[in-house]
Amino acid sequence: MEDSSYGPASFRTQADALLRKNLTFQKRNISTNIRLISFPFLLCLLLLLIQILVNDQLDQPKYQCGCTCIDTNGTGTCQQVCGIQYSTLDQAASCAIPTPQEWPALLQVPDPEYRAVKTDFISYSDLPDASCRETGSCPATILLTGSNISLGENLARNFFTGVFSPSSSDMLYSLANSLLGSSSMTSTDNFLEPAFTSNLPLYDIQPQCTRNSSFSVPFQIESVTVQQDVTCAQGLNLWRNSSSEINDELYKGYWKGNTERMINEIIAAYDFLNTNENNFNVSVWYNSTYKNDTGTAAIGLVRVPRSVNVASNSYLQFLQGSGTKMLLEFVEEMPKRASKLKLDFSSLLGSLFFSWVILQLFPVILTSMVYEKQQKLRIMMKMHGLSDGPYWMISYVYFLSISLIYMLCFVIFGSLIGLEFFTLNDYSIQFVYFFIYINLQTSLAFLAATFFGNVKTASVIGHIFVFGSGLLGAALFQSFLQDSNFPRGWIVVMEIFPGFSLYRVLYEFAYYAFTGGRMGTNGIRWTDLSDSTNGLIPVLIIMVIEWFLVLLFAYYLDQVVSSGTGVQKHPLFFLSKFLKKKSPSFRKPSVQRQGSKVFVQMEKPDVSQEREKVEQLLLEPGTSHTIVCDNVKKVYPAKEGNPEKFAVRGLSLALARGECFGMLGPNGAGKTSFINMMIGLVKPTSGTAFIQGLDIRTDMDKIYTNMGVCPQHDLLWETLTGREHLLFYGRLKNLKGPALTQAVEESLRNVNLFHGGVADKKAGKYSGGMKRRLSVAISLIGDPKVVYMDEPSTGLDPASRNNLWNVVKRAKKDRAIILTTHSMEEAEVLCDRLGIFVDGSLQCIGNPKQLKARYGGTYIFTITTLNQEEEVVEILVRRISPNAVKIYHLSGTQKFELPKQEVKIADVFQAIENAKRNFTIQAWGLADTTLEDVFIKVARGAQASDELA
Ligand SMILES: *[C@@H]1O[C@H](CO)[C@@H](O)[C@H](O)[C@H]1NC(C)=O
Ligand SMILES: *[C@@H]1O[C@H](CO)[C@@H](O)[C@H](O)[C@H]1NC(C)=O
Ligand SMILES: *[C@@H]1O[C@H](CO)[C@@H](O)[C@H](O)[C@H]1NC(C)=O
Ligand SMILES: *[C@@H]1O[C@H](CO)[C@@H](O)[C@H](O)[C@H]1NC(C)=O
Ligand SMILES: *[C@@H]1O[C@H](CO)[C@@H](O)[C@H](O)[C@H]1NC(C)=O
C-alpha cells in the first residue's frame, strides 16, 4: 500500500505499545494491586497469629516439664528440681527421661468376649464352645503348624509355664517369669506402657485357671506404686495342618465369617517350618491393628518381642530340658532429651490456606481478560491494528509477571515471619514448582476467558473454582492421599485437575516441613524427589504437559470461538494455507443475484445505479475505490418464536478516496449492523465488502491496520488519560518518536482536548462530550485509510460540534469515511453523499442537493392573518400557484406547499406586497425544503410500502 505513510506496525511495535499501556494501567490500579498482594500477607499474618497463640498455650506450665521445690539440706532454702516424677501426664511429654522405666514384655491378648470359639463359619472342633463367652471363661488360643507335628506338640507343651507367683521383692522379675498379656492399645513410644496405666487387667496365661484367680499386685512406676489387676486366662494351643489353614482361620475370625457379627481373635500363631534339633526356624503371625495410631501418621509399637521369646524359650527347653530358661526380663525405651512441645501450624493448615492464596490469582487474571472483552476494548484495539500474536504474548508475560511478583511477595513474607513451610523447604524446589504452577494457572485463565463474556459471571465462577478446589482438596483429595489403600494411579488421574495438583504439591511440602520441624531437620531437598511415595515428579510432569496443552487449546479456542473478540475463524483455520491453494480467488462477483431480484424491482433508480456501479467495479481488477460493498446481507436467525430478522438486505455501495458517506435512517434501521459487519464484529450472512481490495470475510487482520473506528459507545479505559489513549493507538498505527508526539498533540488540539490539562485527566472523569471527542481523535490518529464513525457528535455542545466537523472535514481529504448520524445538519455539512437507510435497505442515495431536489421540489409558504381572512388568503395563494396544497391551518396561521416549477420567488413577494394593502398580514415566510423533510418523507414512504407488501 504505497499510500499508507507508516505501514503496518511490526510485532515488536505492537507488543511495545501494549506493554506500555498495560504498565500505565497497572500504575493507576495501584490500590487494587496492593489489595491483591495484601491477601497472602493477611493470611500469613493470620497463620502467624494462630502460631503465636498455640506456642503461647504450649508454653504454659501445663505443658512444661513439672518442677517442684525441695528442701535438700534442711536449711529452709529450697531448690528447684524438675523431672518426670513431678509432672502430670500432659507435662511429662516435655521432660527429659534419662533412665526410662523398665516394663515387662507383654503379649497382645484379646479380651474374653472376643477370644476364638467354635462357630459355624470355622469348622474346627477343637475350639471351645461359644457358651464360654457368657461366663467370661474362654481360653486364649495360640495356633501352631510346621512340617513335624510331633516336634510341634513338644514345643507347644513348653509354652505355658505354670503359676504366677508374685514376689514383692522383685516384682519385675516375677512378672517377666510368667506369661503376661494385655488387650490395651499401645502408643507410639514405650515410656509408659498403657497396660499399666489403663484400667484393663493384665492376663496371666496358664495351662489351667482355678476359680477366683483374679488378684491385684503392686507395681512400681518411677516412685509411684500402682495396683495392677491380674486375671488368669487359660492358654490353649491348637495344631493346624498347614499355614494356609491358619491364614484361613485368622481371616474368617477377623472378618466375622463375612456374614455374622462375631469376632474370633487369637493371641498369635506360629509356623515352625522345617525346624528340627539342629535348626530353629519359625515365623510368627501378629495383629498390628491394635497399635493406636489414630489421627497421626506416627507409627505405634507392636507387642512382638514376647511372642518371639515364648517360641525361642520353648525350643531351648525342648533341647535342654525344663531346667534351662531364656528370660526376656524387660523392655525399655531409649532415653530422651527434654524437649519443648511445638506444633507448626503453617504446615498443618498450609495446604488449604496456601492453595487459596495461590489460586486467588486465577479469578484476577480471568476477570481482567474478560473485562477487556466485555468492554469491547480488545476488539477496539484489534480494529486499530493490534494483532492476536502480540496481544497474547504481552498479556501472557504480563499476567505471569504479576503472578510471579505475587508469589515472591508471598514466599518472602512467609519466610520473614518464620513459617517453617517456607524456611525449611529448599527454595529452589519451591521456585520450580510454583513457577510451573503459575504458568499453568495463567494459561488456564486464558482458556477460561474464552468461555465468558461477562465479568460478573467470570468472577463468580472463578471464585467458586478457588474455594471449591481448596475445600475439595482438603476434604476429599487429602483423605485419598492419606489412605494407603487408595490406588496411586487414581491419584495421578485426579491430579490432572490443576487444583488437585497444586494441592498435592502444597501437601507434600507441608508434610516435609512438618516432619522436618518435628525432627529438627530439613524439609524437602532435591534428593527427596527420588522418593516415589511423595509423587512430586509425576505432578511436575503433569503440570508441564498440561501447561503446554492448555495454552495451545486456549489460543485455538480464542480464534475459533469469538465471544466478542471479532469474527471467529474456521475451526480448521490453521489449514488455511492449504485451503487457499484450492480456491485462489476470493474476489469474484457474488453469485446470489437470484435472491436479490425482489429488491431490485422495488429499488429506486439511484440505488440500482449504485449496484450496477459496484458490479462494474468488481469486474475491474485494480479499483481506485477504497470501499466496495457487494450486496452485503445480515439475517439474524429465528429465535424464541420470533421470525428471522433481516437487519441488512443486500447493500451495495462504492466509496472513493476522499469521500464521506453519510448514513441516515430511523432507529433500528440496520445502520449499526452494517457498521458492525464492516468493522469485523459480526460476519455478513452473505455478500462481502472489499476495503482497499481486501475481503472483510478473510483479511480482516490486514484491514485493521488501515482502519479507524469511532464506535457509538465510547470504548475507553477508565483509568487512562486522553493522551495515553492516543499514544497507545498511535503506537499501534506505527507512529514513533517525534512523529507520534506531534500527531498526539495535533489531534488533542483538533478535538479541543488540549487546554487546561484535560489531556492528562483520566478518561473516566471526562464528560460525555469529551469522551466522544477523544473517540473521534482515536479513530483518526495514524492516518487510517478507512474510518467508520457511528454518531460521532451525539451529546456535543454546538461549539465542540463545529470543532469536530472541522476536524472531520480536514480529515476526509485522503480517506474514505462512513458516518452514521441523526443530525441532518451534520450530514449536510460533512457528507459528500447521503444514503437513507430504512428497514435494512437503502431507499435513496445521492448528494444532499440532489436528494432535496428529488424529494423536496416544493417551497413551504407560511402566513398568519386574522381568522376571518383565511379564505381570502387561500384564494391569493391559489392565484400564485394553482397546485398549492394546504398542509396546516390553525387560528389564522396557514401552511402551503408550493411546487417549485410553478412559483417564482419574486412573484410571491409581489403578491404579498399587493395583498398587504387589502388586509393585515401579521407575518409570513417562504422556506426551501430541508433535508429533514426529505428524510421524513422517504422514511414514511418506505414504511408505507412495507405495510402494503
Ligand atoms: C520329628 O521330630 C522328632 C522329635 O520330636 C524326631 O524324632 C523325628 O525324627 C522328626 N520327624 C521327622 C520326619 O523329621
Ligand atoms: C490334618 O491331618 C490329620 C492327619 O493327617 C488328619 O487326620 C486331619 O483330618 C487333617 N485335618 C484337616 C482339617 O485337614
Ligand atoms: C486385631 O486387633 C484388632 C484391634 O484389637 C481387632 O479388632 C481385630 O479383630 C484383631 N484381628 C485379629 C485377626 O484378631
Ligand atoms: C527357614 O524356612 C524357610 C521356608 O521354608 C526356608 O526358606 C529357609 O531356608 C529356612 N531357614 C533355615 C535356616 O533352614
Ligand atoms: C489412642 O491414643 C490417644 C492419644 O494418644 C488416646 O486419646 C486414645 O484414647 C487412644 N485410643 C485407645 C483405643 O487407646
Radius of gyration: 48 Å
Mean pLDDT: 82
How many strand segments? 26
Q: How many structural domains?
A: 5
- In one word, what is the shape? elongated
Instruction: Provide the list of bound ligands, each named once.
Output: 2-acetamido-2-deoxy-beta-D-glucopyranose
Helix content: 40-55%
Strand content: 15-25%
CATH level 1 name of the largest domain: Alpha Beta
Count of helical stretches: 33
Question: How would you classify the helix and strand content by structural class?
Answer: alpha/beta
Protein name: ABC transporter domain-containing protein
Organism: Protea cynaroides
Keywords: ATP-binding, Membrane, Nucleotide-binding, Transmembrane, Transmembrane helix
GO molecular function: ABC-type transporter activity; ATP binding; ATP hydrolysis activity; lipid transporter activity
Descriptive overview:
There is one protein chain. This protein is of the alpha/beta class and 949 residues long. It has five domains: 29-44 and 344-552; 62-99, no CATH class; 104-332, no CATH class; 594-850, P-loop containing nucleotide triphosphate hydrolases (Rossmann fold, 3-Layer(aba) Sandwich), CATH 3.40.50.300; 857-928, 2-Layer Sandwich (Alpha-Beta Plaits). Helices cover 46% and strands 16% of the residues. The chain contains 33 helices and 26 strands. Helix 1 crosses helix 13 and helix 25 packs across helix 26. The longest helix is centred in the N-terminal third of the chain and has 29 residues, at 30-58. The model is unreliable at 1-5 and 580-601 (pLDDT under 50). Bound molecules: 2-acetamido-2-deoxy-beta-D-glucopyranose (NAG) (5 copies). One 2-acetamido-2-deoxy-beta-D-glucopyranose binds at residues 185, 187, 292, 294. One 2-acetamido-2-deoxy-beta-D-glucopyranose (NAG) binds at residues 148, 150-151, 154, 276.
